[in-house]
Design brief:
Layout (H helix, E strand, L loop, with lengths): L2 H4 L3 E10 L6 E3 L3 E2 L1 H6 L3 E11 L8 E2 L5
Antiparallel strand pairs: 1-2, 1-4, 3-5
């Protein structure tokens, strides 16, 4: 195996705001997600919260919980 095959790439994740039907307000998520995942939930990324995490720590839906690590 060469170095390229063993390299794990980092992925940018962001906190995001989403509309809460319950409160009628935009809420800041405690979770971090990829831009694609944020778009799927109609969220708005908070670009200043960008963090790089290993791809292996991103779940199948594109979410990552930085607080758990």
């Amino acid at each position: 195996m060469n170095q390229a095959e063993t390299f794990v790439s980092d992925v940018p994740v962001y906190q995001f705001k989403f509309y809460s039907v319950r409160t009628g307000d935009m809420i800041l998520s405690d979770r971090y997600a990829t831009l694609d995942a944020i778009q799927l939930v109609n969220g708005v990324p908070v670009l200043q919260t960008r963090q790089l995490v290993p791809q292996a720590e991103i779940d199948a839906n594109g979410f990552h919980d930085l607080e758990s690590h």
